[in-house]
Amino acid sequence: MSTLNSRAEEGKLAIVEVSGVGDAAGWAERNRDALHEVVAQHGAVLVRGLGLSDVDGASAVLRILGVELMAEREAFATRDSHGDGVYSSSKWPPNQPMCMHHELSYALEFPSLMLFACLSAPTGGGATAVADSAKVLAELPSDLVERFEDEGWLLNRCYNEEIGLSWTEAFGTTDRAEVEKYCSANGISFEWISGGGLRTSQRRSAVATHPRSGERLWFNQIAFLNQWTMAAEVREYLVDVYGKENLPFNTSFGEGGEITQDVVEVINKTYDSVTLREPWRAGDLMLVDNLRTAHSREAFDGPREVLVALGVPTTPLA
Q: Transmembrane ranges (predicted)?
């Protein structure tokens, strides 16, 4: 197995710099195992110098490094598909950040490896920042962690044709029976509502154990998918027009207790205290251990094209 020289200064993202790479897919094939070892060591790594510049070339690299890519189900935002498990980044307003989260941590099967390829870098902002979830768990108030460990958390969703994703987009089918089958197999309670909509709820663990290291990790999307993380004007409009029970997504404690604004602020501030970021450059590649490391997308200016792949599907260890 080849080895890679990575540098990881204190308080900064680990970086591998390469040069003279004419065939990025060939380089990925030769260095896949070594790159995965760097991710295992640091939780995330940024690779510079591959010169990824087009969808086909970058997609080939993502498929090689992702080992086995999975299709996204239960999505919360639209993406463009580039086939075989490669997507655009989520279509989220550029002026609104996507706060720290672990991809599909509300699903029973999720990617253990996230892969990102930057084809076009924004003129300002837009970093895919990362945060060590073991450090987050250690820094959160112990009584809050204990409650979430005891109860888990609930993700409540309301799908309709007016706001957010429709259920046909999220589940990839127009067949209600297929949706019901999926929900029943994945521990999701569901209710068809007037107007052709769907309301769902699923209870998940807030803390997971890393299968390789045995570390206990804060692993969820409690804050990101909560109403209080929305921009204030967006939340106020949606609550006023649709009511809290019909928000496209919201979270609560596992036994149904409300997660208040102060709890969400504590979680997000804890993420902020351990966040690492490196501005994107066109051609960059990033790999993130989706269990060990949360990621975000910061607000940005100018064009930004980042491809995403969901690699190495797995199930959580509570």
A: none
Do 248 and 171 lie in one domain? The reply is yes
d(CA 3, CA 54): 27
Cα 271 to Cα 139: distance, rounded to the nearest angstrom: 9
As for how many domains the chain has, the answer is 2
Residue 102 inside a domain? The answer is: no
Other Cβ atoms closer than 10 A to 258: 13
Is residue 101, in this structure, part of any structural domain at all?
Answer: no
Q: Which two tokens stand for residue 192?
A: 């068809």
Per-residue pLDDT of the chain (318 residues; tens, 9 = 90+): 456 777 777 778 999 999 888 899 999 999 999 999 999 999 999 999 999 999 999 999 999 999 999 999 898 888 999 988 899 999 888 998 999 999 999 999 999 999 999 999 999 999 999 999 999 999 999 999 999 999 999 999 999 878 878 999 999 999 999 999 999 999 999 999 988 899 999 999 999 999 989 999 999 999 999 999 988 898 999 999 888 888 999 999 999 999 999 999 999 999 999 999 999 999 999 999 999 999 999 999 999 999 999 999 998 776
34/260 Cα distance (integer angstroms) = 43
